[in-house]
Amino acid sequence: MSSRWVFFDLDGTLTRSEEGIWNCARYAAQRMGFPQPDGETLKQWIGPPLIWSFRNLLGMTEKQAVRAQEIYRERYTAVGKFENQVYPGVRGMLRALRAGGVHLGVVTGKPEGPTRDILEHFGLMKFVERISCATDARAEKDHLIRSVLPEDAEEAWMVGDRRFDMEGGVQAGVRTIGAAWGYGTEEELRDAGAQYIARDAWAVAEIVCPGARRPEGAFLSMEGLDGSGKSTQMEMLTRNLERFGFEVEHSREPGGTPIGEKIRELLLSRENGEMTDVTEALLYAAARAQHVRERIRPAVAAGRVLLCDRFLDSSVAYQGGGRQLGVDRVLALNAEAVEDTLPMVTIYLDLDHRTSLARRSAASELDRLEAEKEEFHARVEQGYHELISRNPDRYVVVDARKDREEIAREISEKVLERLLAAEEAG
């Protein structure tokens, strides 16, 4: 079997790193007594070796540039390396290449310590078999590629976003793909020897492994009593997942589709006070059947993370518990609507019903379910607890009385742990 390798640049190719790099460049310039680089100058900073940038972009002498590099690395090692974000599509692309039997490596002008820290922090190290990094003695891309290229490699590619990556690939005798989503232009990449231009990360998988299938994404739900802070936490979780390169799509229940939104209006309108408990439960199931097939499954199949504000658990808690239809009866009503589609993780914001009602009442006008008596909401709370006791492994339970930043950190850590483990397994 032939040995196939793809080597990636890091900054501007796997991760969008300008926040940390630019902050460190400004910091080093200030410490050295040079004017702060402007936006146009900073745009040229990513890709070249640091000493080259300090000399050619800020006009430093060789000695000054060496000292500026030391100052830059002080801040970068402590803070800057994590002021970073994995590009959308990178995770799926790496998974698809690995599934296609391709060996993966990283070739970067960064030092090895920060490179490994970044790859570990963002859960990318598991994809990488070889790393070649700059040293104070050598930072040329062709040298770095040759130093990590196996002798038995029958096919090898260099993927990067700047001319240094393309020139290095050409000089090292490997095939080249320009990453047009990064910091270089298509013209720069083509002029430097790019054989292919990939306009997004997934295009790399299609070039190297024609016909590659996108790995599945994930379905997550967030549950809790009204007033528990779901909307806020969904937004904060989304920002954190996107920093790791997960492509997040929001939805809600009831709703999430044109049909589901019309059903939502029926269910929540206070004008429909005569609605029977069974009618209510069946309408929720009907909206869910449409939602599963029109939104949830397609999003997961396309490799995205579908984060949903409420799902089946809400029906079990509100109709099974609150309306006293029974947990098992509501699960049976929803069996055909859901089939085998359940969240990988359900985040439950745990808040007692009295505190929940007080928060919700102070926010805006109550809908038909929110306006129910306290006894109803007490039964809803108990319904959630019964569900969690039946299937504790699916839930991330968080105390919703904590500070919202603390809640967000806890949710992100636990959800990322599950998502990264799922990548490792599949």
The total beta strand count reads 13
Give the strand content: 15-25%
| Helix-residue proportion | 40-55%
Helix/strand-derived class? alpha/beta
Q: Rough shape? A: elongated
Integer-rounded radius of gyration: 26 Å
- Spatial order of the strands forming the largest sheet: 5-4-1-6-7-8
Low-confidence stretches: none
Counting H and I runs of at least 4 residues, what is the number of helices? 18
**How far do the termini sit from each other?**
22 Å
Main sheet specs: 6 strands, parallel
- The mean pLDDT is 93
Quick tags:
single chain, 426 residues, alpha/beta, 6-stranded parallel sheet, 5-stranded parallel sheet, 52% helix, 15% strand, elongated
Explained architecture:
The chain has helices at about 20-30, 40-45, 50-60, 60-80, 90-100, 110-120, 140-150, 165-170, 185-190, 200-210, 230-245, 260-270, 275-300, 310-320, 325-340, 355-365, 375-390, 405-425; strands spanning about 5-10, 15, 85, 105-110, 130-135, 155-160, 175-180, 195-200, 220-225, 250, 305-310, 345-350, 395-400. It has about 425 residues and is an alpha/beta fold. Strands 5-4-1-6-7-8 form a six-stranded parallel beta sheet, sandwiched between helices. The longest helix is centred in the C-terminal third of the chain and has 25 residues, at about 275-300. The mean pLDDT is about 95.
Task: Give a short summary of the structure.
The chain has 426 residues and is α/β, with parallel strands linked by helices. It contains 18 helices and 13 strands. Strand 6, helix 8 and strand 7 form a beta-alpha-beta unit.
